[in-house]
Amino acid sequence: MHRMKELEKHQTQGEQLQREVLRHLLTSAKDTEYGREHAFTTTKDYDDFVRHNPVNTYEELKGQIERMRHGERDILWPGHIKWYAKSSGTTNDKSKFIPVSDEGLHKIHYAGGYDSVALYLRNNPQSRLFDGRALILGGSHAPNYNLRNSLVGDLSAILIENINPLANLIRIPKKSTALLSDFEVKRDRIAYEAIKKNVTNISGVPSWMLSVLNRVMEITNKTHLEDVWPNLEVFFHGGVAFTPYRKQYEQLITSPRMHYMETYNASEGFFGLQDDPMDKSMLLMLDYGVFYEFMELSGQSKNIVPLWAVETDKNYAMIISTSCGLWRYMIGDTIRFTSTNPYKFVISGRTKSFINAFGEEFIVDNAEQGLAYTCEQTGAEVLEYTAAPVFMDANAKCRHQWLIEFSKTPQDLQQFTSILDKRLQELNSDYEAKRYKDITLQQLEIIPARQGLFNDWLKLRGKLGGQHKVPRLSNDRGIIDQLLILNK
Predict the structure, then answer these.
(1) Exposed (0-12), middle (13-18) or buried (19+): which is 283, by Cβ within 10 Å?
(2) What's the Cα-to-Cα distance from 289 to each of 17, 25, 320, 323, 327, rounded to whole Å?
């Protein structure tokens, strides 16, 4: 296969691929307003690019994006951009509108989908994937955000809206169902549409897909999902870490032929996919029209390096420049490289999803690993969680407070708490130091959440379904205090 030969270049030619992407981006956008202001025409190499271009957050680009949404052309990327992905994963009221150009749509987002299937088939040559239907769970459009010259939706809705019509012959649900905004109505309609189809693969965010699959089980009154879809063989998942949900999926789907493949597809671009089923790391996709840079987050360092200068086992904030007009854009995700030949990584968290109230530098990767180990030791199962600091209670005690919705409650909550706290100290030396003799931090506290609490919180904010999720960690108590009120 031609594409497989191209993907082989990821093994040894990572730097070359990325330099070619940068040249393409600069050449394509040299006559845009942004390109003229930042000397794209005279930029010869990466050092020049850094010299002339500042690192941006959404706030720095917001004004130009708003002008593009009102119809102005050649601002951040050539031509007129019609589609804008409403950012997911944010819990405040401020929405971000990420441009999705035609080139970005096809050569970043769809390219990632094609490669996911290609690599899955390479690893599973006996697959019968195309003998049945793909159940794809996505978000919706948001008409209230649309302007005359632009359309807004969840990224997944934009992909569904623009997909080749022939793809609708092998996917479910039908478009009108897939784009519904009311998740509870959509979940029921998807379940009823899918029950009588030969579903061979499913794609979506693990939490929301699990809700749909549980509804399928309720309607059919079956014991396992393979009793409904005997030819189901793979779940392409992304959006949130799969670890908290894995055991629930393995209980729901007991077929030994079932596979799981992680993808990293955000509103800003498709960045990685799991190319080896025995390796939880993902391959960084280097030829999609995304140029990567990485900001070191270890210690006090904020040094920014290109891909060819990264090191393994360091936490980096990801910075991207793309064919959708994002230039040196801080995406907000943090990753850790597990290999540099090829470049493979795991998502370690979000730049705004952490707890560092006492110098503990506690990140989502610590939380996910700690919970996975604790559940394995105790037989418990976690459905959703969030954690935040208790700065000082009535007894002058400080600690991390966790609100956890269990799908299988531990028999001994105190034992669960102790094991988790000890494991987190093993994973994070800063947390261990602050826990020393309970001087700075006391043992973490766990508050069990009632069933459906996190979904109720999202529903109140109009964020039920799609790609929305509750932040796992917060450095203040805003979110957890809202949830605790609802938990009464």
Answers:
(1) buried
(2) 10, 7, 10, 6, 12
- Note whether 319 and 293 are within 8 A (CB): yes
Which amino acid appears at position 439 of this protein?
A: I
Angle formed by the axes of helices 364-378 and 413-427, to 10°?
140
User: Over the stretch 319-354, which tens digit does the pLDDT of each residue have?
Assistant: 999 999 999 999 988 999 999 999 999 988 777 778
Q: CA 329, CA 42: separation in Å to the nearest integer?
A: 21
User: pTM here?
Assistant: 0.81
For residue 467 the two structure tokens come to: 């790609």
The encoded tokens of residue 445 equal 């506290």
218-268 pLDDT per residue, tens: 999 999 999 999 999 999 999 877 887 888 899 999 999 999 999 999 899
Q: What angle do CA 376, 382, 385 make, to 5 degrees?
A: 130
Give the residue from 446, 367, 383, 419 showing the smallest Cα distance to 244.
Answer: 383
Q: Is the peptide bond prior to 389 cis by the omega test (within 30 degrees of 0)? A: no
**For residue 405, what is the enclosing H or E element?**
strand 399-408
Look up residue 354 and give its two tokens. 């952490």
- 293, containing H or E segment: strand 290-296
Position 185, amino acid: V
Q: Which two tokens stand for residue 331?
A: 């995406």
The enclosing H or E element of 152 equals: strand 151-153
**∠ at Cα 340 (338, 341), nearest 5°?**
115
